[in-house]
Design brief:
Layout: E1 2-4, E2 16-18, E3 21-22, H1 25-39, H2 48-62, E4 68-70, E5 88-91, H3 99-102, H4 106-114, E6 122-125, H5 134-137, E7 143-146, E8 152-159, E9 162-168, E10 173-179, H6 185-201, H7 207-216, E11 224-227, E12 231-234, H8 240-254, E13 260-263, H9 271-278, E14 285-288, H10 299-308, E15 313-316, H11 320-329, E16 336-339, H12 342-356
Parallel strand pairs: 1-4, 5-6, 6-7, 12-16, 13-14, 13-16, 14-15
Antiparallel strand pairs: 1-2, 2-3, 8-9, 9-10, 11-12
Helix pairs in contact: 1-2, 8-9, 11-12
């Protein structure tokens, strides 16, 4: 099975995987070179994401992949992945994101996301709000599974190793399954993934397979807990909905808000809304930083936003690695979180893990 995801945390190769094996340097160069050469003859240059998408599809084809899980970039009908004509489209949720393209309401984002559904595709819809379902229904999918009705979560409780969950699908119920992910929203995502797998197979997934897969599941940079030795959570949340979910996860796992927040964002985001949704308090120590991308939000703007929402202790540290070390050094048993962008998460994780070793 092929897997194409975005963005990457460390190296671009992470985006293109077959089984557990990333594309190698040699394979990436070999497949990418003719794609780039072809694009040089086109009047409209392809974007970096479009080139990577074409490379992934070419490599999957060369390797004889029969099934590929492909994550969209921005999403919507204009996304490069929309050209693939997916047989199954999975929507985990609808939030306000990429407002410069999709607008500033959940409805406009739902309409945009529904545009990625090809004619005749099956849709697995993890968005629980029925008010946002019509754009997907209007695409006349071959089948439509809706969370809470056709599939979903029967039970979910945090345990030391992750979460103990019970899930249902149209074909089966899976009780007392260990999901090795920590955050509450990850259970809902697991139920969406299970429903999608069942849709592809046209039958229930073997119970033992479900248990083995969820026991081995990991999601780097998504509510990843690192003991440095104090608890530090690295999460790539980048919009208000994700920040609110992160806050709920922190309260569930630690029964309190983080004492320190390391935050870096990209320029198209709203930092005041993000920090408010995260639940920062006047006493929260906020360290503003900047990921290594041309799209990084100016640190001064981020610091101003933190002060505007009432934070009294706002620090600035340009390098993510240094910001993470500072946060870890001052934990004293309290909880810190590193967030705002997957770019930040990707730079933070190697540092955090090194502090834990």
């Amino acid at each position: 099975m092929g897997l194409y995801t975005s963005p990457h945390l460390d190296v671009p190769h992470e985006r293109i995987v077959i089984g557990d094996t990333m594309i190698t340097d040699e394979e990436l160069a070999s497949v990418l070179r003719p794609v780039v050469e072809h694009e040089r003859d086109e009047s409209k240059p392809a974007s970096w994401f479009e080139l990577m998408t074409a490379t992934a599809v070419r490599w999957f084809t060369d390797q004889g992949v029969d099934v590929a899980v492909v994550e969209t970039g921005l999403g919507g009908s204009g996304d490069a992945t929309a050209a693939l004509g997916a047989r199954i489209v999975v929507v985990t949720s609808v939030a306000i994101d990429h407002v410069e393209y999709f607008g500033a309401t959940r409805w406009s984002n739902a309409v945009a996301e529904a545009g990625a559904v090809p004619a005749g595709a099956a849709v697995v819809l993890g968005e629980p709000d029925p008010a946002l379902h019509p754009p997907f229904e209007a695409r006349c999918p071959s089948s439509l599974l809706i969370t809470g009705h056709d599939f979903g979560v029967l039970a979910d409780s945090p345990v030391a190793a992750g979460r103990s969950v019970s899930l249902f699908t149209p074909a089966a119920t899976y009780d007392d399954v260990l999901l090795r992910l920590l955050a509450p929203w990850q259970t809902a995502s697991a139920s969406v993934a299970l429903a999608a797998a069942e849709t592809w197979l046209g039958a229930a997934v073997d119970d033992r397979v479900v248990r083995d897969v969820f026991d081995a599941t990991h999601a780097p940079g998504r509510f990843e807990l690192v003991h440095t030795p104090g608890p530090l959570v690295v999460d790539g949340a980048h919009n208000a909905a994700a920040a609110a979910a992160l806050s709920r996860g922190l309260h569930e796992r630690f029964a309190r808000s983080p004492s320190t927040v390391v935050v870096g964002m990209t320029g198209e985001r709203d930092p005041k809304t993000f920090l408010s949704a995260l639940g920062v308090q006047p006493a929260t120590r906020v360290i503003c930083t900047s990921p290594r991308t041309a799209r990084a939000m100016p640190i001064d703007a981020l610091a101003a936003a933190a002060r505007a929402v009432g934070v009294r202790t706002v620090e600035v540290e340009a390098a993510v690695a240094v910001a993470v070390r500072h946060a870890a050094h001052h934990l004293d048993g309290a909880v810190a979180v590193v967030t705002g962008s997957l770019y930040v998460a990707g730079e933070a994780l190697p540092v955090a893990r090194s502090l834990a070793s």
